Amino acid sequence: MLNNWPVVYVLNGPGEKGRGNIYLGETHSFSSRMRQHIQNDEKREKLKTVRVVLDETFNKSVCLDLESQLIKYAAGDGSNNVLNRNIGVADPEYYNRAKYRKTFDDIFEELREAGVFQRTIPQITNSALFKLSPFKSLNEDQAAAAVDIMDGLVEDLAEDTELGNLVFVEGDPGTGKTVVAIYLMKLITDIGDGRDVGEADGEVDMDTVFSEFFLPGSREVFQGLKIALVVPQQSLRKSIQNVFDKTPGLSKNMVIDQWDVADDPDTFDLIIVDEAHRLNQLASQASGVRNSKFHEINEKLFGGEKPDASQLDWLRAKSRQVILMLDRKQTVRPADLPAEEYQELLMGGGGKEPRKYRLYTQMRSLGGNDYIQYVHDVLSPSPPAHQQEFGEYEVGLVNSPDTLVRLIREREEEHGLSRIVAGYAWRWASKKDASAYDIDLGEGVRLQWNTKLLDWVGSKESINEAGSIHTIQGYDLNYAGVIIGEDLKYDPVAQRLCIDRANYFDQPGKQNNKMRNRPTTDEMLLEYITNIYVVLMTRGIRGTFIHVVNPELRKYMRQFFPVLG
């Protein structure tokens, strides 16, 4: 059967700095495939042990699916350098898939007991290494967008294009913008490394949607490129850097911010911007040094011709191609580039009309696209006509803060990755006094804001704290306990949502943009605050529990969500 039957195999061996090396493959001719691997200098040097998964009921589709699952688990486990390319990671449908998948966990456990993996499946799937992995399999929607993006890049990069070409990839929360961005970084890097791919060297089955880009004619376009993934948010950027640091072929130095791009002495061929809605216009920065730096960069890049240039302008001035992963509804501060400026660019204002793609399929929430849209509608001027249900997705109001904490702790014990997050409706007293509590909800429930700025979600103390928009945007949770503070209220007379400036404590989130003479109006602040709560309420994969402080807003929200506990 090893000569004419589909099998999955695992090659592993010792590495450096406490990490091993691993390669996972699928083949219908194991003997010949092993001869190919032995002829590969890298694999012969780094991989010493061979294990084969053989089952007479497994056809090729099952083996391809198992191979993909094991590659994803290996990347999320973090104990090995995964030597695979991500071209072979697939998410195929086939007959009796659910039945076969039940056996995959048993196979994983056998491999874990043999020392191939160190962590359990729940530990892996709840980790940032897994969620931000370049080996995540793309759904049909994401794969189609990625292929179209790659086709466009082949055409654009093959020409001697000018700097500043834009590509827009839009999608609601949970549609996988970050997943696609990271996947493309790995794919482009693998194509550009110059190695042939195909049955001849035992890498992958060439019957994948990205195979054509590894062939002569396309492959050369991606060789020798200077590329980067720009992530404006510090916490998310650090998490992705950690993933890239553990992925052969990638480097944490490829994950940078917009300031790094502006300071680089060279230009880039391609920049992918994740969470592009957090790029800044000319506005007051976190320090006087950064304010001066902003002006210096504008002078350096544009020679006085564009004193009010934005960070997006910087990127366009420094790169031939700029791919923007964007959700205009996630703008949360006055300094963020306004949605109307993105709209003008989308329509081709100031140059040629950019390539545009859209991600539609909701992948994060079990509530699906309907739940995401429902949350938007509830916190909009045009709320739903009646309450909706979302199947297995757990969502509801929790009147008691003590019950909210209990529910999140119970879900944390059962599923992990369950956290409390809150709007910026409380001062950050614990920043200067480590013994102080920031959020006092009564019933003995007192919380501190996140004591860790980087990768707060994965920190040990996060279960005892409350995360803010700035530590949770871009991350997934299994369950989110959302606290809506007195920054958002409901006016029963006017029958509309309204804000309370005095109870909104993110100072950069409400200050006027004096540099561009743009006051932050109440209407603008209402948009920012409701955007924040939409983000918080769409973090949970399995469920969202909502505690509303303001009595009138709580009464309003009861129209749309059941009361729990």
From TrEMBL:
CDD domains: GIY-YIG_COG3410. SMART domains: AAA. InterPro entries: AAA+_ATPase, GIY-YIG_endonuc, P-loop_NTPase, SLFN_3-like_DNA/RNA_helicase. Residues 4-85 form the GIY-YIG domain. This is GIY-YIG domain-containing protein. The lineage of its organism: Bacteria, Bacillati, Actinomycetota, Actinomycetes, Mycobacteriales.
